[in-house]
Amino acid sequence: MPELNQLQDIVTQTRRDILRMVHKVNSGHPGGSLGCAEFFVSLYHELMDLNEGFAMDGKGEDLFFLSNGHISPVYYSVLARKGYFAVDELNTFRLINSRLQGHPTTHEGLPGIRIASGSLGQGMSVAIGAAQAKKLNNDTKIIYSLHGDGELQEGQNWEAIMYASGKKVDNLIATIDLNGKQIDGATDDVLPMGDLKAKFEAFDWDVVEIKEGNNIAAILEGMKEAKSRTGKGKPVCVLLYTMMGNGVDFMMHTHAWHGKAPNDEQLESALSQNAETLGDY
Amino acid sequence: MTKYTDQGKNDTRSGFGAGLAELGRTNPNVVALCADLVGSLKMQKFIEENPDRFFQIGIAEANMMGIAAGLTIGGKIPFTGTFANFSTGRVYDQIRQSIAYSGKNVKICASHAGITLGEDGATHQILEDIGLMKMLPGMVVINPCDYNQTKAATIAIADYDGPVYLRFGRPKVANFTPADQKFEIGKAVLLQEGTDVTIVATGHLVWEALQAAEELASKGISSEVINIHTIKPLDKEAILKSVKKTGCIVTAEEHNYLGGLGESVAGALASAHPTPQEFVATKDTFGESGTPAQLMDKYGLNNKAIITAVSKVIERK
User: Fold this and answer.
1) What ipTM is given for this predicted complex?
2) Which pLDDT tens digit goes with each residue over B44-102?
């Protein structure tokens, strides 16, 4: 098991990867990516039981589905640094003929990706299907998924949320990235979603809150608690309170960096706040 | 050639149900999903024999498409069942992203397609589904003509690795193709040879084409009748070979002329062998309530309409 400081080093490098990827092509979504860096690193480097290499069917291993596909930079960085593909390939993000499309896809055969996402609201249904396939296959590993909070405005989520508890899909941990922001502003201004904990509980889910969603120790503790609640007849929801743009001072406390890349000066400033740890690609 | 006769009326959706039941016995990876229309889709036998491999989703078609995509990841071959309208337009983006673009091995099985759904009216009668589905890269689109062929097609698509749209209908219609037929995706079936006109039909219109050809023969017109059960990929070779002989073509389908079989045929012929063509299809309109026979007559989708179209197209040669 990696020490906390080792995980933190991976997070710092992941931030650099995210910033450099979006800067190079002057497009992409750094804000949400930075906000979920600690979660992704904790998941892939500590929490998930993963097989060597990549097989689409993922039998005998935990699987992860990203529903809010626009935070592809953090996904790609973590997959590359976990060894699913060469770290150098991060250089091709959003370029023509790349496997690293703007939003994640299976279409170009990038190892680690099992479904296309980007058009919002679809990932929970897919995660449920994968979870039910695991049950049919007598595979006791579990399914993790991540969803944006704004994404919950899509109605398909609520079909899926109703189904997962109704059909006792209890090998699923669906995490909601609660950063309180979406493209047009604060979720409370765009469309208030009220008390999400109460909503999930009303749909008969087991809910775990991680109040410090950018603190690795808190994430590990909360996610282990969530895992301990699987297999008990209810799907598990994790409400992960994160800071969009975390780790870069001028990207925090604003929704401005949801889908905007830093310019040269801004990149320099952002990188200076996150010194190289594992080596840039 | 074989003379096709009606072996007894039956609905194509029951052919689907029978095919699915057989798959339940022969292929352990096949699973079925339904959005609260088990009876309409004739899925009871599969469910009774394989309760663990059936997922009742409730009235939530978008969720059903996503769950089907997820099930493929564990190696399952999901067959989704609901009406054609709710299998396509209602869930287009879910199919596009989670199934087609993701290359998932989902079989979208759509009943009550077209105007023969009848009395429920236009909210449930989709005449745009072939177009919607054939536009998706990599999607196979199949519209079998009778009970036997729907059963054979259902069984055949389980062996094909990739997304498939299987379209069938509600009413009991002539069952005239062989019970033991081998169904080949993308392979046209030549039903009757002729020299004056090619009639290419799909779905319920195939039997109407045979009826029309018989009537035309009594008037001295020799029709070649081809059953195009697979609209995509289209068997262009079979169509080209026929029109090179006959010099004109009528396409017939229970679908809008925009986006349907006729459009696919016209596209293929325009670049390879421009040929006079008439379209038996709905003319960019919604349907309405009525009995299937009344509607097929009113909207020009029966053997009479095919005969009229043949007369017109032969004059254009």
Assistant:
1) 0.96
2) 999 999 999 999 999 999 999 999 999 999 999 999 999 999 999 999 999 999 999 99
Please answer yes or no on whether A57 and B73 come within 8 Å at the CB atom. Answer: yes
Non-local (6+) Cβ contacts of B259 within 8 A are B128, B130, B131, B132, B134, B135
Answer for the pair B275, B223: CB distance below 8 angstroms, yes or no.
no
How far apart CA B180 and CA B148 sit, in angstroms, is 8
User: Active site residue: B22, B48, B61, B208, which one?
Assistant: B61
Concatenating the DSSP letter of every residue in B175-242 gives --S-TTPPP-TT--EEEE--SSEEEEE-TTHHHHHHHHHHHHHHTT--EEEEE--EEES--HHHHHHH
pLDDT in tens, B174-231: 999 999 999 999 999 999 999 999 999 999 999 999 999 999 999 999 999 999 999 9
Alpha helices in chain A (DSSP H): 4-25, 30-35, 37-42, 72-82, 123-136, 156-166, 187-190, 196-202, 216-228, 264-272
Digit-coded pLDDT (tens) for B6-43? 999 999 999 999 999 999 999 999 999 999 999 999 99
CA distance A85 to A88: 9
pLDDT at A144: 98
What does the pLDDT look like over A196-215, one tens digit per residue?
999 999 999 999 999 999 99
User: Which residue carries 């059909």 as its tokens?
Assistant: A167
B224 in Cβ contact with B192 (< 8 Å): yes
CA B123 – CA A214 distance, rounded (Å): 49
Ordered by where they begin, the domains of chain A are 4-272 (3.40.50.970)
What are the tokens at B42?
């004739």
Q: Which residues contact A184 (CB under 8 A, 6 or more apart)?
A: A190, A255
Nearest CB to A163: which of B57, B74, B97? B57
Say which amino acid occupies A164: A
What integer is the mean pLDDT of A55-78?
98
B61 in catalytic set: yes
Contact A244, A258 (CB under 8 A): yes
CA distance A248 to chain B (A): 33
Q: Do A128 and B70 touch (CB under 8 A)?
A: yes
The span from the CA of B132 to the CA of B287, in Å, is 17
Residues on chain A touching B139 (C-beta within 8 angstroms): none
Please identify among residues 205-244 of chain B the ones whose CB lies closer than 8 Å to any CB of chain A.
none
Tell whether the model's pLDDT for residue B1 goes beyond 80. no
Domains of chain B: 11-173 (3.40.50.970), 189-312 (3.40.50.920)
Task: Please state, rounded to an integer, the average pLDDT across all residues of chain A.
Answer: 97
DSSP state of B3: P
